[in-house]
Amino acid sequence: AAKNAGRDQFCLHTQALDEAIQAAQDTRTMLEHALHENRLLLHYQPMVSGTGTLLGVEALIRLHHPERGLLPPAAFFTSLDHLSLARPIGRFVLDAALRQGSLWQKQGLSLRISVNISTRHLLDARFLDDLKEVLSRYPDLPPSQVEIEITESAPLADISGAQMLLHACNDLGVRVALDDFGTGNASLSYLQQLPAQSIKIDRSFVRDILNDPKDLAIVAAVITASHMLGLEVIAEGVETTAHATLLAKMGCGQLQGYLFSKPLVPEDIPAWKHHFPPGSQWEENLPSMGV
Ligand code: C2E
Ligand code: MG
Ligand code: MG
Ligand code: MG
Prior knowledge:
Layout: H1 2-36, E1 40-49, E2 54-65, E3 69-71, H2 86-106, E4 112-117, H3 119-122, H4 127-137, E5 146-151, H5 159-171, E6 175-181, H6 187-193, E7 198-201, H7 203-206, H8 213-228, E8 232-235, H9 241-249, E9 254-255
Parallel strand pairs: 2-4, 4-5, 5-6, 6-7, 7-8, 8-9
Antiparallel strand pairs: 1-2, 1-9, 2-3
Bound molecules: ligand C2E and magnesium ion (3 copies).
One magnesium ion binds at residues 179-180, 200, 236.
């Protein structure tokens, strides 16, 4: 009986595996079709200064599904199978984001455009050429207003390769931000080794700063370290005025999150204004944290 039970279990496992493989293939097919049918698009989330001024936007990919509507990346960047699509999708995103940035620039709206780059595309031998090509396509947008976000949660197998590559990006005038900072296991060594201009503190740390003294300590330490290293620091996932106030008090110069805005269609960016009068109400909402 034990033997049979074992066999049943084995069957269940292979069935589950088959289903997982099938689901991964379906996702990949969905993504491939969306790419070829022009159903991938970008939304843009404002990044603001401590007083609510619009500094730049982060481009965030969405997939328009004929039946399911607009899907977030979690619904289609799900498995390793999308990796062979990393470069075509990366090129699409770079092109669309810089085209939009250039359009805004020509309309007199000068914004920093941040683009998420997958580690897979970053470490592709053709990445630098892809970046140069798209920059030359949009000469109205100064490269200094382009930022690439490198996620710190995915390990960079080839750190010296990444170092050289990011230096080359800097040489083009492009800024480098370390995204999801704190979630990987190489955070501090990356800070030391990678040429970045900015770090983005991951939402998972920001979320609990009001009630978890350890998270508060980590965020405070990251802000201090960033300043000492001459880096800009931005907090992700800022959802309440209490968070914003505390972060601003701690010297975090840039903020991003639903408190200010969800990711928006590009048409909504030019008219976007933070609804708080600069620097006002936050003070009153400062929680008694002894900071
Ligand atoms: P990310 O780069 O860390 O982007 C921030 C994510 O947090 C976005 O989710 C954004 O909508 C969400 N977010 C912003 N503010 C808040 C907030 O206050 N609360 C909460 N709960 N969430 C907030 P999204 O758009 O679903 O993107 C998820 C991830 O997918 C991104 O994380 C990024 O790693 C990846 N991604 C998005 N677009 C691209 C892309 O064009 N290329 C690549 N390679 N990755 C992308
Ligand atoms: Mg990002
Ligand atoms: Mg992030
Ligand atoms: Mg994140």
